[in-house]
Amino acid sequence: xxxxxxxxxxxxxxxxxxxxxxxxxxxxxxxxxxxxxxxxxxxxxxxxxxxxxxxxxxxxxxxxxxxxxxxxxxxxxxxxxxxxxxxxxxxxxxxxxxxxxxxxxxxxxxxxxxxxxxxxxxxxxxxxxxxxxxxxxxxxxxxxxxxxxxxxxxxxxxxxxxxxxxxxxxxxxxxxxxxxxxxxxxxxxxxxxxxxxxxxxxxxxxxxxxxxxxxxxxxxxxxxxxxxxxxxxxxxxxxxxxxxxxxxxxxxxxxxxxxxxxxxxxxxxxxxxxxxxxxxxxxxxxxxxxxxxxxxxxxxxxxxxxxxxxxxxxxxxx
Length: 318
Description:
Elements: E1 6-9, E2 16-19, H1 25-61, E3 64-65, E4 75-76, H2 80-87, H3 89-120, H4 125-139, H5 142-152, H6 159-166, H7 181-206, H8 210-218, H9 223-234, H10 236-251, H11 255-260, H12 272-282, H13 286-311
Antiparallel strand pairs: 1-2, 3-4
C-alpha cells in the first residue's frame, strides 16, 4: 500500500511542510544542494580544459629540454631553461623593450585619450563626427594599419619624412634605425588604441551626475580644481579598467612586430610574445619558448595584482 503524504508544521514559523510519500527528505535535500553545481558543471569543465590544463601543461613543458621537430625526445632539465633565459643578453633586452613599450603606450596613450575625451565630451554633432574619426583606427585591421605606417615611415618616400623636410627638419630612418624603431612601434600602437580608450573615457564622463558640476559652479570652483577633485575621482573606475586592459594588451603585442620589424633591427623591437614565437616556430626550441611563456604569465599576473593592491583603494564607485 502506498504511503499517504504527510504534513507537519515547522516549529516557530507557522508554515506547513508537506513531505511526498516514498521520497526520503535527505535525498531531496542532497539533490537541491547539487543542482547549482550541475548547472555550473559544463562551464567549469570548459574552464578546466581550456584554461587550467594549458597553463599546467606549459609550466610542465618549461622544465623539459625538447624540440618541436622531435617531440619524442624530451629530457627533464628542471630550472635550466630559466637560467639560460636570464643569462641571455637578448632575452634581457626583450624584457627591457617590453617594459619601455608598456610604460610608453599605457602612460602616453591613456593621457592623450583622457585629454581627447575632455575635449570631445560635448553634444554638438561635429564632436560626434570627430569621435567616429578618432575611433576608426580601432576597427581597422592591424595588418592594414601596419602596412600603412610602413609606407608613412619609409625613409625615402614616406609622408612623415616629407612633412618634416617641408618644415626644415631632418628626416628619420624610423624602422631601420635601432634608436628609433621602438619609438616607431610605440607611435603606431598609441594611434591604434587611442580611439577605443577615448570612447570609454567619454562614456565614463557622461555617467557623472551633472548636479555635482552645478554645485561646483555655484561654489565658483576653478576648472582645475573641478578636474582634480570631481572629474578624476568620479572617473577612477574607468581609469582603473583601462589601465589594466592596456597593460595586459601591451604585453601581448605581436602582429605589429611580425609585420613591421620582425624584432629588428638588432633585436631593438623584439618583445616577449614575439620572442616566444621566434624560439618555438623559428628555432624549434620548445623548452625556452615554454619558459618564456611562464615568465610572461608571471609578469602579467604580478602587474595585475599590483594594480589591484595599490589602485583599487583609490577607486570610488558611485
